[in-house]
């Protein structure tokens, strides 16, 4: 059981470049989200999704785009990278219903460390 | 903004109980309290959650006040491996919730 898988683990970009951080989960979770964590700081919510075809903005959505075409995947796109987007990015997922399997626990990936020069 | 407030840091002697407080004075009746911890730069790890009753599992205990406006995470016998940042959040376990983390409490376990 792979859980939440993020790729790449490390990436260096130049200012103005675009890229996509991939996130996949194999637990059939409806809820998925992206966070960024700057050095010495807590987690800040970028975007989230409660199911395929549904996305919404979090606390810091500017400069990022998401889509949710399948239950399993939730890619995060940086449209034009800026040095301020240098951070560690975490993807998370959980059940969103109230069934017996739903503890509401968030499962996190290992993170993607992005540096923008 | 985060719905919870926590002290930025705490110290605890190894082998003693670590008691981490969290205030959530605006919690709604259908919101659960969750605790996570983050060791170094790894992804946060779930510890425990509860609605209004006290909860215990193999990792920790969660004490929620009767008015539900605050809670305490208890690590009964802290070890050096418990050194981490601990996050307290509130959420409902159904659709349309925006899960906001605060800055958490950095717990230092002293040898």
Helix count from the secondary structure assignment of chain B:
0
Give me the count of strands of chain A.
11
Counting helices, strands and paired strands, the structural category of chain A is mainly beta
Uncertain residue ranges of chain A: none
Largest interface: A-B, 35 and 26 residues
On the 0 to 100 scale, the average pLDDT of chain A is 92
Strand content of chain A: over 45%
Helix content percent band of chain A: under 10%
Query: Total number of helical segments of chain A?
Result: 0
**Which percent range describes the beta-strand content of chain B?**
over 45%
What is the CA–CA distance across the termini of chain B? 35 Å
**What is the residue-averaged pLDDT of chain B?**
92
From the helix content, strand content and strand pairing of chain B, which structural class follows? mainly beta
Main sheet: strand order of chain B: 1-9-8-3-4
The major β-sheet of chain B equals: 5 strands, mixed
Quaternary structure:
heterodimer
Straight-line distance between termini of chain A: 36 Å
Order of helices and strands of chain B: EEEEEEEEE
How would you describe the shape of chain A? globular
Cα-based radius of gyration of chain A, to the nearest Å:
14 Å
Describe the fold and architecture.
The complex is a heterodimer of chains A (117) and B (111). Chain A is 0% helix and 48% strand. With 117 residues, chain A is mainly β. In chain A, the strands form two sheets. In chain A, strands 2, 4, 5, 6, 9, 10 and 11 form a seven-stranded mixed sheet that branches. With 111 residues, chain B is mostly beta strands. In chain B, 0% of the residues lie in helices and 45% in strands. A five-stranded mixed sheet of chain B has the order 1-9-8-3-4, with no helix packed on it. Chain B has a four-stranded antiparallel sheet with strand order 2-7-6-5, with no helix packed on it. Chain B starts with 8 loop residues before the first strand and ends with a strand. Chains A and B meet through strand 4, strand 5, strand 9 and strand 10 of A and strand 3, strand 4 and strand 8 of B.
